[in-house]
Design a protein that fits this description.
Blueprint: H1 4-19, E1 25-36, H2 42-56, E2 62-68, H3 71-75, E3 83-85, E4 95-100, E5 105-107, E6 116-117, E7 130-136, E8 142-150, H4 158-173, E9 182-187, H5 193-196, H6 202-212, E10 217-219, E11 227-229, E12 232-234, E13 237-242, E14 246-247, E15 252-253, H7 270-276, E16 283-288
Amino acid sequence: MMPLRTLRTSLVLFFVFSLSAFAGQVTISTFNVRMYGYRNDSEVRDPVVKKFIFETMPASDILVFEEIMDVARFKKLMPENWSCLSYDHLTPHQFVLLCHSPKFSFKREPNDDNDVIDEVGGPKGTLRPAVTAIVTDLKGNSLFRMVAVHLKALPDYSNVRIDQAQVIARWLSNVKEPNLPVIMTGDFNTYTTQMNGQSENDIQLIQRKMDDANLKISHIPNELFTFKTKYGASQFDHFYVSSSLKVTKPLNVFEICNSDSPAQNDQMTLEYYNNLISDHCPVTAEIVF
């Protein structure tokens, strides 16, 4: 039998060498900031939301935000050396933002002019488009592709969500750099078979669209709720990641969605969180590429 110390050393070396094939690491969070800027409560919410994002959430290199209804105001919460992508749309609208720290940069897809997959917004533009970018290092080398989404809400619209997923899969099948790994994240508004009227849950149906296009992009498992109010809890927020990337640990979900009093702040009740921050919890992935 191998001595315990030797076994531990071997496991450490195996882990180190298994990661040596990857060029770097990135931490990415997705966060639906419930109807930010819709009501006249931004002055009250701003300091609370900003502190939560940059002091309570795990430190992230790339941040995806959903339900941002006042984009200009929300961008002021971000550090000056961060940069965010969004799009033009008639208001009121729940915008999707894709932001990066100074550690990385974004560049557009070849022949793209607006950083979005327009067709995800539906034939009449009434839905939310997906925001996309090629993530680069500071020398401009392409590292991976981001797709940030906020799919159609409510249980009865499963078919719309799956159509949106099919549009994304088709778009990814036709990009100029097809071998670039993909990280797709955001609020997918997924429901189970008990609620969506389908033979499979929405997570599986979205996965089928990725598989049908042979994209080798897989859903990252997560058993925790990512949405919670006094009326109930759900799993809405997800990561779908290319098989060539490695998620190094289980997804991190801010714990108030799975506990009424998070250890990070004993004073933060669910009611306080829902009123001033969100009804969703941020979800964070650590990924090597």
